[in-house]
Specification:
Layout lengths: L5 H26 L6 H4 L3 H38 L9
Length: 91
């Protein structure tokens, strides 16, 4: 079942890969209480844990979106292989 075209599925896949990596790394940095994030959160330990959990959840959502985008990419590749090639002449 096609939900989106090949360009959109590729775009979503790239963005989902980047979002997953970035949010998982940010969650790890929050969990280890990185000094670089001290100005953003402050000294509250509970806020670090909450921010880390939020980043991990958002990274999981991006991972699911990446899986769906990859599935659409495969479906679009199969449809393009089944369709006959048409040649258009541009003037």
């Amino acid at each position: 079942m096609r939900l989106c075209g090949p360009k959109l599925s590729t775009c979503f896949f790239v963005l989902a890969c980047w979002g997953t990596i970035m949010l998982l790394l940010l969650g790890i940095f929050f969990q280890t209480k990185s000094v670089m994030l001290l100005k953003d959160i402050g000294y509250d330990e509970e806020r670090y844990e909450s921010a880390a959990m939020s980043c991990f959840i958002a990274g999981g959502v991006y991972f699911v979106i990446g899986g769906l985008s990859y599935w659409q990419k495969v479906v679009n590749d199969r449809y393009s292989a089944l369709e006959p090639e048409t040649t258009t002449i541009m003037f």
